[in-house]
Design brief:
The complex is a heterotetramer, with two copies of chain A and two copies of chain B. By secondary structure, chain A is an alpha/beta fold. Chain A contains 20 helices and ten strands. Chain A has one domain: Alpha-Beta Barrel (TIM Barrel). Chain A is 53% helix and 8% strand. In chain A, β7, α14 and β8 form a beta-alpha-beta unit. By secondary structure, chain B is an alpha/beta fold. Chain B has one domain: Cobalamin-binding domain (Rossmann fold, 3-Layer(aba) Sandwich), CATH 3.40.50.280. Chain B contains six helices and five strands, in the order βαβαβααβαβα. Chain B has a five-stranded parallel sheet, sandwiched between helices. The longest helix of chain B has 22 residues. Classes of the chains: A alpha/beta, B alpha/beta. The complex binds cobalamin (2 copies). One cobalamin sits at the interface of chains B and A.
Chain lengths: 500, 148, 500, 148
């Protein structure tokens, strides 16, 4: 049942490339994949497409996203999933009714993410026995298509599968066939942030499968929402790095025929930098898609509430939740993925999760209609991000001789692409970000990434200032201090001014 | 492995858990404090902890579990150790050990009953660990000498 | 015991003017004033000045404010007061320790504000008997100097008296003699927002007394914090109106010899407009003080959390609290007066009040160090505010032939100065503000205020857009809709986009 | 005062209370609904309500109290009316009637016991009032006719 088997076979058949998987070959791959687990056999693509077509448009993620972009709205979408059907139904109900979620989530548990469906089954049984969720998400493969549809039928919003994994082949098939209309995940982003031994090449292959599947649905007249998660390790990921990965994953998806591909970026918790990164991401993704000849890919951008460590104090956390909605709207994101005041305490109850949605929604409202367009500091930041992304991406594409898949894997091997704090052995993780004295995330150590000299000097000058002012040695301690920063107690974070 | 160090520690994140940041910071800090740290990284099966502990003659295993499924992953961990002949090894665990925000005292007892000598709640900093770890290791070594 | 007696006497002695009250005359006024209520006799100015001088600098409001300005900090200060000594002590304790308040409040009850000390005494007795506060604040005159000092000695922060009143003569004497180091209130602002029959001239006279008192303390080497409350009726007060009143009250205070005079402005809940108004206020107050020859008056600006109607839902309200801290910092305010998620539910418990402080403080933190300086929309808004303030203020000063007190009273009588939603009969209250489609507060009906034609046309064009888009008739309904706006339920405020 | 109107109402904000906005909006809305409204504004002593009600032969007095001291200000209000010969006048009150967020049901009963026919919680909109007010006035007039 290990997923490795599948990718091993693939590599024999198909050397890694960005090319679209031919239809016949893909159908064969699907058969092999679906045969791996009992409920795989339940997937009937034509029947699933018909089910999707019969759904009201309001339940289609793609439709709702396009509507948001057309009207300039910023949709709210939480994360969340519990082990049993009843718990999960109750959760979605509360998120929809009390939380006014525009998009509903289904986070899968971590066994499912790693295709350990047997362990997930045990966790599900134990959860049912104990009456509390022992899994950190909804084991959607074990529940299977019919039960998922029971949920889909009950709600009035689109559902997105949030199944942080490098192995999306089974969860993707079941989620889409079950009537979920969105799926979050991508080859480079999730492999570097969710696995240790898994190769980036195999991660890319697995998501090529999923993207090809979405394209197949499209051929049958069903537009699905695919989405890329550039929050990566969530830990001080600077905008330029997130955007580079977003562009690469988007190019890979476009090659497989995906026409609707959302991008996610985690907030860095500096108002200007957050807004600048959303705008830069929008532009750059389209720029590179156009360069590659993809002129019709729809790419809405989601902003994610802070993905690093949160404060345990709920009042402090609520400020971060509110900020998250506010800045997503200011930056022009079309969606915000919300957290709650429970973030540093554990998976939130449905009530706290719904509360986080309302806090975020009011934050969005209070942003009114203004943007930072024309603001000098914002323009500078946006230009720096763009320069960094273009400098490194052009190098990556060059390394692949025009093939994104080859370029990306080669770049990670060489350290030209890198992700901070990654658990993956195929990722050097030499790059070290830290926060500067004005609160911007800067690059302390670029590792082997070929950042432009000018921006790098700027980053380091700013960080040196922080080191001096805070009395921290310029080096890793600065990075570690920045990991903790926002989780610190209020009294430490901002002491009574006279004491400082 | 010389005796000059304060102890040999095996660290890692158990199960399908990818949360490496805290574990990495903790490992680095303990190393700077003079422990020898064998760091297994994220997504580490229980058995690998035990193997590494045997190989390195470790004083303690420090398990991280953040993602909520620690309760499932750690079931039988002490037995694994005992079966491998590590009956007196120190077992620490830290992180978000269960799903959701459950009363810490209950969680602590649950993990003590599973055979962990100490459990550390979310928010633990390396500085909260070093002293007590040093004492526990010293006590364990003294016991071992007496036993011998 | 009615305050009217006092002002009537004054008017016989002293026709209204901006001139500094001569020392001897003032000492006589003080004697008469203090004789009105038993504990008035306890005030011994020299002893009080000595008490202030013996206090650590951290407990001096003036010192802490100057420090905040010097370091660019934004101080937090809640509102709050309960009837009995124990309840009030407990409140301040929690605000300081759990809420990390930089400045502590003492809100007086509404009987005290109206110098109905007898009624306040009954309310205090009833509160002690029932074990809950029946008064909406701390009856500081009834408690008297010694008990106030008991509180001052217990805390480690400055205390400001918040005693919204047009009759500050007694509360001012007792508060300052008790060791409070700040006092909020001013003649024009509070008379127009807190009284019905009281004349603006008498309000001005009463605050000339208080300002003269502060100047007397200064002569004795004690710098006190005096502060002006331009939130007025708190109900859709546009920035330009708030600032006009702030400038007039500041000029009046400066004439009495006050050198440390804070200005308060209520937030309007549009990010750009809020930031622009704080900046404009800072500049304009200094501009007019300089013009009048006052080159050494220190004028820090406080931003106030939304003073209009709040939503009952705590999650929604928390967004407004967080926004309030955030925007105060962005706008460059040196202080923020905080509210809590209880605002629409009733006077907050100490716990909720402290929570609001922490939410605000984290909002301040998340604003990092950025400003809107150079942002085109912000610059435009700031210029419009400045143009409006200068246009009308110059007219007001002209009406007084160089005397601010005369100019102000004449202007209110003529409707050249006006305050929206005022209960005061001496204020025409014809001016009607409403919110435009982008969320800015605009002027729907200027009443008789001579706004510049250009800005007025701009206001009305923007409002016409809202009227059209919302299907509301251009007129008072638009203003009433704007009174309720932010108190509406989330689902109404920002419906699921597909439904709209 | 002709009988064509739906009723004569005296409105105002009692005591030392300056919160005029809601009271003004309410008064305007009721006027637009066809009531005759005698509006006393903010900071109105109890006795003034009663005087105005006598002068205008009012059907109802609508007291606003927002600042929390309504409990003190309204003590004896019904008696004042009765003493002035307005024993059957309708008394409504609305706003934030007490200090803090106390359970509404308790507050309502407290004010009913003080002689108010109806009390309205924070958040009340004019549209929540008009119908019930019309019915109460109609009922009161019918009673008066029967009594006569
Ligand atoms: C960053 C983060 C991520 C990153 C991880 C990146 C990486 N590779 O490390 C990403 C985005 C990938 C991620 C993914 C997920 N996450 Co996550 N994540 C976090 C977050 C925000 C911060 C964690 C962190 O790095 N903290 C900073 C470090 C320095 O602190 P630390 O990890 O707590 O470690 C310290 C102490 O705990 C202690 N310690 C740790 N281990 C040990 C061991 C011993 C022996 C001792 C003595 C001490 C000790 O010392 C460390 C150093 O001070 C937390 C919430 C929070 N805390 O704010 C959630 C959180 C841990 N994640 C959670 C979850 C559920 C997930 C997901 C399932 C997705 C989801 N949210 O639905 C996936 C699971 C992925 C997987 N298979 O494991 C939950 C766990 C909930 C629970 N247990 O009830 C949390 C609490 C969020 C929440 N409230 O829902 N996450
Ligand atoms: C604006 C405001 C002010 C303005 C008032 C301006 C003015 N002249 O009107 C200013 C800034 C001056 C002010 C001052 C004070 N305020 Co004030 N204020 C508010 C605020 C923010 C909004 C009130 C408002 O205008 N709402 C909009 C209107 C449309 O709604 P409304 O007033 O509730 O009226 C509607 C209904 O209640 C109902 N209604 C009203 N009366 C009646 C009567 C009847 C018979 C019926 C059927 C219905 C009805 O219909 C109305 C129309 O829909 C509220 C909190 C909130 N709601 O968000 C606090 C609030 C009312 N204020 C409060 C207090 C305590 C004060 C002060 C003591 C200062 C302080 N906070 O410490 C002073 C007191 C001054 C005084 N002497 O009266 C408290 C009262 C607390 C309590 N009861 O427990 C509140 C609730 C804030 C709080 N949580 O602490 N305030």
């Amino acid at each position: 049942m290990g997923n490795a088997t599948i990718t091993d076979q693939d590599s024999q058949i198909r050397p890694l490339s960005q090319d679209k998987i031919p239809r016949d070959e893909f159908l064969k791959m699907r058969d092999e994949n679906l045969a791996r687990w009992s409920c795989g056999g339940d997937v009937d693509l034509d029947e699933a497409a018909a089910y999707h077509k019969a759904m009201v448009p309001e339940k289609h993620h793609a439709h709702v996203s396009r509507h948001a972009v057309a009207t300039g709205a910023c949709l709210t979408q939480p994360r969340g999933g519990f082990a049993t059907l009843d718990m999960h139904k109750d959760l979605l109900q509360k998120l929809e009714v009390d939380g006014l979620a525009d998009i509903l989530p289904t986070t899968t548990d971590s066994y499912t993410r790693n295709e350990r469906f047997g362990q997930a089954a045990d966790g599900l049984t134990a959860s049912e026995a104990k009456g509390r969720s022992l899994l950190n998400g909804f084991p959607l493969v074990n529940h299977g298509i019919d039960r998922i549809r029971e949920i889909v039928d009950q709600v009035n919003r689109p559902i997105i599968a949030l199944t942080g994994t490098a192995m999306p082949r089974m969860t993707g098939e079941i989620a889409y066939a079950g009537g979920m209309t969105g799926y979050l995940g991508s080859g480079i982003a999730y492999t570097t942030s969710y696995t240790k031994e898994f190769s980036i090449a195999d991660g890319i292959r697995n998501y090529q499968y999923l993207d090809r599947l979405a394209a197949l649905y499209l051929e049958k007249g069903v537009e699905l929402h695919r989405r890329q998660p550039s929050f990566l390790t969530g830990t001080n990921v600077t905008p330029s790095i997130g955007i580079m990965v977003a562009v690469l994953d988007a190019l890979l998806a476009a090659e497989q025929g995906v026409k609707h591909y959302g991008l996610e970026l985690t907030q860095v918790m500096h108002p200007i930098q957050d807004a600048a990164s959303i705008a830069a991401c929008k532009d750059l993704v389209q720029e590179y898609l156009h360069r590659a000849g993809h002129k019709d890919v729809f790419t809405p951008v989601s902003s994610l509430h802070w993905m690093g460590a949160w404060p345990a104090n709920r009042a402090q956390a609520s400020a971060m939740v509110v900020y998250g909605g506010f800045i997503a709207k200011v930056g022009g994101a079309h969606n915000v993925t919300t957290k709650s005041t429970s973030e540093a305490l554990g998976i939130p109850t449905p009530e706290y999760n719904a509360e986080g949605l309302v806090m975020s929604r009011m934050g969005i409202y209070l942003a009114r209609d203004f943007t930072f367009e024309g603001h000098p500091e914002y323009q500078l930041e946006k230009e720096m991000i763009e320069l960094e992304v273009r400098t490194i991406l052009d190098k990556v594409l060059e390394m692949g001789n025009g093939d994104v898949a080859k370029g990306a894997t080669a770049a990670f091997e060489a350290g030209v692409m890198d992700v901070p704090w990654s658990p993956n052995r195929g990722c050097q993780s030499l790059i070290m970000p830290a926060r500067d004295d004005k609160g911007y995330l800067r690059i302390l150590d670029p590792g082997k990434m070929p950042f432009p000299k000018d921006t790098l000097r700027y980053h380091r000058d700013q960080l040196q200032q922080r080191a001096d002012n805070k009395g921290i040695t310029f080096g890793p301690d600065l990075a570690i201090d920045s990991v903790y920063e926002l989780s610190e107690e209020m009294a430490k974070l901002m002491p009574y001014p006279l004491a400082s | 492995m010389s005796e000059v160090n304060k102890g040999v520690l095996v660290t890692g994140v158990i199960g399908s858990d990818t949360h490496i940041v805290g574990n990495r910071i903790l490992s680095r800090a303990l190393e700077q404090e003079g422990f020898r740290v064998v760091s297994l990284g994220a997504l580490t099966p229980a058995a690998e902890f035990v193997e590494a502990a045997i190989e390195t003659n470790a004083d303690a295993i420090l398990v991280s579990s953040l993602y909520g499924q620690g309760e499932l992953d750690c079931d039988g961990f002490r037995d694994l150790c005992t079966e491998a002949g590590l009956s007196d090894i120190l077992l620490y665990i830290g992180g978000y050990l269960v799903v959701g925000d459950q009363p810490w005292e209950e969680v602590r007892i649950r993990f003590r009953d599973m055979g962990f000598d100490r459990a550390f709640p979310p928010g633990t900093r390396p500085s909260d660990v070093t002293n007590v770890l040093e004492q526990d290791i010293a006590a364990r070594r003294a016991d071992a000498k007496q036993g011998a």
